[in-house]
Amino acid sequence: MANRKKPRPMKRVTVTVDPEDYEAIDRMARRSDVSASWLIRRSMREFLDRHRKNGVIEVHLGRRGA
Fold first, then answer.
1. Cα separation of 7 and 17, whole Å?
2. Distance CA 43, CA 33 (A)
3. Are 29 and 35 in contact (CB under 8 A)?
C-alpha cells in the first residue's frame, strides 16, 4: 500500500491588487486552463523559493521600476 501524505489545510488570504495586475493574472490563468488562485499560489511559491536563503526570506524593497 502506498504511503500517502495527509493533505495540509490551505490558509485563505485576502489581498487587494491593482485592477490591471489582476486582469493580467486572469488572462494568463485562462490561457493556461488554471484558476487565478492556482497561478497566484504558484507565483508566491516561486517568489519564496527565489528569495529564501538559509531559511530566511530576504526582500530588498525599492521603488517600482527602479
1. 29
2. 16
3. yes
Q: Residue 30 is placed in which grid cell?
A: 485562462
Please name the residues in contact with 26: beta carbons below 8 A apart, sequence gap of 6 or more: 36
How far apart (Å, rounded) are the C-alpha atoms in residues 42 and 34?
11
pTM of the predicted structure, to 2 decimals: 0.68
Q: Is 65 helix (H, G, I), strand (E, B) or coil?
A: coil
Of the candidates 41, 45, 39, the one whose C-alpha atom is nearest the C-alpha of residue 57 is 45
Residue 39 to residue 41: CA distance in whole angstroms: 5
Q: Can you tell me the distance from the alpha carbon of 2 to that of 25, in angstroms, rounded to the nearest whole number?
A: 36
pLDDT in tens, 9-61: 989 999 999 999 999 999 999 999 999 999 999 999 988 888 787 777 777 77
